[in-house]
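Memo to structure team: turn this sequence into structure tokens by end of day. - J.P.
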Amino acid sequence: MDGGSGAKNPISEAMIAAVSKSVDTPLIVGGGISDGKKAIVNCKAGADIIVVGNAIEKEVNLISEIADAIHSC
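Reply from structure team:
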């Protein structure tokens, strides 16, 4: 699932949870994930893989922040 690069309105937690319960494959979620808090919310909602694109171009340390956040989830 992808809300689009730099999405202002990323995919909702409710949608992620609904899709996660409906599929038997890993759920990949991206779009608008610009910090560790958003990554954790998506992870807890059911995302198996978090995609971070343009945000890391603007903030080099973001990938470490998100990785640390996800591993603490």
